[in-house]
């Protein structure tokens, strides 16, 4: 009996201790409440709401995913989970302004695992922070308008050759595959000075496979888009490492001009303290990132412009008038110049309206570096953030009659600040903006002054994967403006 009562007393004592601990915990919890996170839902484990987002992209309405959650949760910031990561989505012009102005203060660039794995980013990115800073400081010098001017004649001559060999022999052409063929050839020429067609085709095939899985749930199972993207990304990375090592030898032996292309300039960036060059894997990743940005997004934008020009003859006629005036001012065989590009104001308004309705990117990712408060919610350190074009580009608050194609929106002062953001903003704005503008306008000049065209399928569906893409490539029937 003594043992029984002793055991009973022990059990009562344990229960009393647990009760006291629960009381202390509840008091502490009341004194230290959990952070008030933005409203929203994260969906399924790992997958999150990725499937719903992908479904919206395949239906041609990626903005619906964002707008529905803005309506249900908050027009300022809400939480979700995409691509295996919990995200806080900042919305509207105020959200864009905060994200752009908070760069290097509250947030820093970050990539989902699906992107970093597919592009084969070095695993020790924190260790390479100084190298990244040096490369980024060098890039504006190469990509500013003054530096890119010398590539305008190259882009122009390549556009002429491309149209002559890939468009002129046919009555019907598929626009999207052909614009990708052109943009990757230009990227190879400007970024790494490669002109070999076989090499360019191999790059094109690898990039096409990578982009299909670059924004997907990071599930590495056989047959998944992510698995394919990672495998092809490794192959592509090895290709670029080989090119980098060959170029290093050429620079050492002075077989190529020191500042001929982007790759050579990146290889010439050194650490002033020890004289060593930048990390080869980092350079390869940066170059691949530039290809992704310039290849898919630019070709998608050109395709969208040609699609809208086919749908709106009045807009096409205004673009034609502007471009023909430029063409008539040129001598026989004379290529486009910087002065010609500056005259293409209406054509660029058309390009901007195309990018508003069919944005080449949907947004960009950041990582929160310091906890802060936004719109009454706590934004914890370590969480991932996202700004998106979807909350403004088709928002009637910023663009009346938002589904209407109207290039006049960009006349005068244009849209309100932070509402039209196809290239982002702030210190991390897309560095390739000017490069893309030159390539787009150069190509449009050549197409418009050479052909008129009509869509074969007037109701072809547009999907986003990740950039807007006609499901059948946008087949058009072309006719030369001047018949032989």
Descriptive report:
It is built from 17 helices and twelve strands. It is of the alpha+beta class. The chain has one domain (46-457): Cytochrome p450 (Orthogonal Bundle), CATH 1.10.630.10. A hairpin with a 3-residue loop joins strand 10 (462-464) and strand 11. Helix 2 (50-58) crosses helix 3 (62-72), helix 9 crosses helix 10 (197-213) and helix 13 packs across helix 14 (313-328). The chain crosses the membrane at residues 6-28.
Mean pLDDT: 85
Head-to-tail CA distance between termini: 115 Å
Number of strands: 12
* Quaternary: single chain
Can you name the CATH architecture? Orthogonal Bundle
- Write the H/E string, N to C: HHHEEHEHHHHEHHHHHHHHEEEEHEEEE
Q: Looking at the structure, what is the overall shape?
A: globular
CATH class: Mainly Alpha
What is this structure, in a nutshell?
One of its GO terms (molecular function) is iron ion binding. This protein has 17 helices and twelve strands. The protein has one domain: Cytochrome p450 (Orthogonal Bundle), CATH 1.10.630.10.
């Amino acid at each position: 009996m003594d043992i029984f009562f002793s055991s009973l007393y022990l059990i009562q004592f344990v229960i009393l201790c647990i009760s006291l601990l629960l009381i202390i915990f509840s008091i502490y919890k009341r004194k230290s409440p959990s952070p008030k996170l933005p409203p929203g839902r994260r969906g399924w484990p790992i997958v999150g709401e990725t499937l719903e987002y992908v479904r919206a992209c395949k239906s041609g309405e990626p903005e619906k995913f964002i707008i529905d959650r803005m309506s249900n949760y908050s027009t300022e910031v809400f939480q979700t989970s995409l691509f295996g990561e919990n995200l806080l989505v900042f919305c509207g012009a105020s959200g864009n302004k905060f994200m752009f102005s908070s760069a290097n203060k509250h947030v820093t660039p970050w990539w989902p695992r699906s992107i970093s794995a597919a592009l084969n980013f070095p695993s020790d990115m924190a260790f390479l922070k100084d190298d990244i800073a040096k490369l980024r400081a060098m890039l504006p010098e190469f990509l500013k308008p003054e530096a890119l001017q010398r590539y305008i004649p190259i882009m122009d001559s390549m556009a002429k050759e491309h149209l002559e060999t890939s468009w002129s022999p046919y009555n019907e052409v598929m626009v999207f595959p052909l614009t990708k063929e052109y943009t990757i050839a230009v990227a190879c020429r400007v970024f790494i000075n490669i002109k070999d067609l076989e090499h360019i085709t191999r790059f094109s095939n690898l990039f096409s496979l990578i982009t299909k899985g670059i924004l997907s749930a990071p599930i590495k199972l056989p047959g998944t888009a992510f698995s394919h993207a990672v495998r092809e990304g490794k192959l592509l990375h090895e290709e670029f490492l080989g090119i980098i090592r060959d170029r290093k030898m050429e620079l050492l032996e002075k077989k190529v001009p020191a500042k001929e292309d982007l790759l050579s300039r990146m290889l010439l960036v050194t650490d002033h303290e020890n004289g060593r060059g930048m990390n080869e894997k980092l350079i390869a990743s940066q170059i691949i990132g530039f290809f992704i940005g310039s290849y898919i997004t630019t070709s998608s934008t050109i395709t969208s412009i040609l699609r809208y020009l086919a749908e709106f003859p009045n807009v096409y006629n205004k673009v034609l008038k502007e471009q023909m005036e430029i063409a008539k001012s040129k001598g026989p065989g004379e290529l486009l110049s910087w002065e010609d590009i500056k005259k293409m104001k209406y054509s660029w308004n058309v390009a901007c309206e195309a990018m508003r309705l069919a944005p080449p990117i949907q947004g960009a990712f950041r990582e929160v570096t310091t906890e802060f408060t936004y719109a009454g919610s706590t934004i914890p350190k370590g969480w991932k953030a996202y700004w998106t074009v979807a909350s403004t580009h088709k928002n009637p608050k910023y663009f009346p009659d938002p589904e209407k194609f109207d290039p006049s929106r960009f006349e005068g002062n244009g849209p309100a600040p932070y509402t039209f953001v196809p290239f982002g903003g702030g210190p991390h704005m897309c560095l390739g903006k000017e490069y893309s503008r030159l390539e787009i306008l150069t190509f449009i000049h050549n197409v418009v002054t050479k052909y008129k065209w009509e869509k074969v399928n007037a109701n072809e569906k547009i999907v986003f994967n990740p950039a807007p893409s006609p499901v059948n490539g946008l087949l058009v029937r072309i006719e030369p403006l001047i018949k032989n």
